[in-house]
Design a protein that fits this description.
Layout (H helix, E strand, L loop, with lengths): L1 H13 L2 H19 L5 H8 L8 H26 L8 H12 L3 H35 L3 H18 L4 H15 L2 E2 L6 E2 L13 H19 L18 H23 L6 H14 L12 H24 L5 H12 L8 H4 L1 H32 L4 H20 L2 H19 L5 H23 L11 H26 L3 H4 L8 H14 L13
Antiparallel strand pairs: 1-2
Helix pairs in contact: 1-15, 2-4, 2-15, 3-4, 3-9, 3-13, 4-5, 4-6, 4-12, 4-13, 4-15, 5-6, 5-12, 5-21, 6-10, 6-12, 6-15, 7-8, 7-18, 7-19, 8-18, 9-16, 9-17, 10-11, 10-12, 11-12, 13-18, 16-17
Length: about 525
């Protein structure tokens, strides 16, 4: 009952005319940037961080939530129409969605994606409202050793599962932790990594870092790989679904939701794994398995539901523990810090009205997402034809303006350029961006909890193992780090029989197709606008 009354208060706040306007702006903006390959909700929120300082925190976060959900859905539009995922979580949608579009069923693919996103997002948000307070109650009982262990787990888990190379992931994490050390040590007062520059004593502003790495780095990467060939957009028509489409979609929507929310709430979660699991499940359970690979509607409905349910799940560790599990959540965490709000177990108590208004706005955003995206799907297709030089020139302008407006210091523009070059080089050498951002944001908090623990136990490192939760988390960390090596060793000693048979059927082709799409999504802004992708 307490949750229900708090949620009703949240709806009262979120349904005010001004907040409703910000929710509409967020959903429309998120859908637009989700459609455009190379953009995404993380970059959009990063660009808007300096602008939203004049807004009320509640209004700003309601708009950010709309951008998040809108971006998650918008990525499916470009996946279906162009076989070019706007977000990595929309990669699996492209497998069947683009085949449906080429078969003249783009309308049905977009419709099942929109409705599935609405159903999964609504159920996921309801689960968020129920489980987030429970997680908070558990988190309040934890001490510094447990928090330190959990944050280390979040860093290592996210780093270990991103990209094709764990080494590159940890290299990116190391860069982020190094950047977080810039400034004055709060305990000793000594300057660290300031190179004698007084303007670095207060450290690097997270807004400048986020804008540089996401926006400037991406724009430079696109400029270096620009292709001037026009996009071939498949006509959409008016999205609708027949009776048979509804019959084949509703079960995948529910199963996709069941996959998406738990994975989104895990520190090593995200939407990529549940979307793939949903696709595999639907392929096995379908009464029309022969259609998979040719445009099966279940292959769009399930992954898109998993995608949006994972987006709702991501908000659980962000609000309850202050731990982001993807790039957009990391930028939203930076937004909390910008407003002087500390996410974590105390957030529901100290900023209760804001939190429940944010959760209520997720319900509202889902409705707006459905009402706006179904009739506007043809318009989103036309946006795909926007010339990229104009698009990224605008991004560079707003990135520069945003970075300068943070402190009104020309030195921030130098930092923007240096960090933007770093973002470009990371893309050039395949380093994932998220571990760096997490390192910058969580680095100071990890250091604080470590020092607090060491101080409580008079410098004895055994204090790090003083709580049962911390011990369990360290065991999970050890398994996370050792398990891949054990699996590799086991596969080396027990090779698959099919690989030993010369005439065995190759089973890796679907994986290669998916892998190709993943690579394409990771570098979707390199000008490769997506061919047939028939693999």
């Amino acid at each position: 009952m307490d949750v229900l009354s708090s949620l009703m208060d949240g709806f009262a706040t979120a349904l005010t005319p001004m907040n409703l306007l910000y929710a509409c702006i967020g959903v429309i903006l998120g859908s637009a940037v989700g459609v455009l390959p190379g953009l995404g909700p993380a970059m959009t929120i990063a660009l808007l961080l300096p602008v939203t300082t004049v807004l009320e925190p509640t209004s700003a976060f309601i708009m950010f939530a709309g951008i998040y959900y809108g971006g998650m859905y918008g990525g499916s539009t470009t996946s279906i129409l162009l076989n070019t995922p706007g977000e990595s979580s929309s990669v699996v949608t492209a497998i069947e969605g683009n085949k449906m579009a080429k078969a003249g069923r783009a309308a049905q693919a977009l419709a099942t994606a929109a409705i599935g996103s609405f159903i999964a997002g609504t159920i996921g948000t309801a689960l968020l409202a129920v489980f987030a307070p429970i997680v908070v109650e558990f988190a309040v009982s934890l001490g510094s050793p447990s928090y330190f262990a959990i944050m280390i787990l979040a860093l290592l888990a996210v780093t270990a599962v991103l990209g094709s190379s764990r080494l590159r992931g940890f290299a990116s994490l190391g860069l982020g932790l190094a950047i977080s050390l810039v400034g004055m040590d709060k305990v000793t007062g000594q300057q660290r990594l300031t190179f004698g520059q007084p303007l670095l004593v207060d450290g690097l502003d997270i807004v400048v870092v986020a804008v540089a790495i996401f926006a400037l780095g991406e724009a430079l990467w696109v400029a270096a790989h620009m292709r001037r060939t026009p996009l071939q957009v498949i006509p959409v028509g008016r999205p609708w679904m027949g009776k048979q489409d509804w019959k084949r979609s509703w079960k995948p929507w529910l199963r996709g939701t069941a996959f998406g929310f738990p994975f989104g709430a895990l520190p090593a979660g995200g939407a990529e794994i549940p979307t793939f699991l949903s696709y595999v499940t639907e392929k096995r359970l379908s009464k029309h398995p022969e259609e998979f690979g040719k445009g099966a509607i279940e292959g769009v409905a399930g992954p898109e539901a998993a995608n949006n349910a994972a987006a709702a799940g991501t908000m659980t560790p962000l609000l309850a523990l202050g731990l982001p599990t993807n790039a957009t959540a990391a930028v939203m965490l930076a937004a909390f810090i910008q407003f002087g709000i500390q996410p974590g177990p105390q957030l529901f108590e100290s900023e209760g009205p804001l939190v429940w208004a944010l959760i209520a706005s997720l319900f509202i955003g889902n409705v707006l997402l459905l009402l706006i995206n179904l009739p506007l799907a043809p318009m989103w297709a036309k946006i795909l034809q926007l010339p990229r030089p104009y698009l990224y020139a605008g991004i560079l302008f707003f990135a520069t303006l945003g970075a300068y407006s943070v402190n009104l210091q020309a030195f921030d523009l130098v930092l923007l350029l240096v960090l933007g070059a770093l973002g470009f080089m990371m893309r050039r050498f395949g380093l994932p961006v998220l571990p760096l951002i997490l390192g910058v944001i969580l680095g100071p908090r990890i250091e604080e909890q470590l020092r607090r623990t060491i101080k409580l136990f008079n410098g004895d490192p055994v204090g790090l193992l003083s709580e049962p939760v911390a011990v369990v988390v360290y065991i999970i960390i050890a398994i996370l780090l050792i398990f891949p090596f054990l699996m590799k060793l086991w596969r080396r000693n027990h090779p698959a029989p099919s690989l030993l048979t010369p005439n065995a059927t190759r089973v890796s082709e679907p994986t290669d197709v998916t892998r190709g799409n993943v690579t394409h999504a990771s570098h979707r802004s390199d000008g490769k606008d997506g061919g047939d992708g028939d693999g």
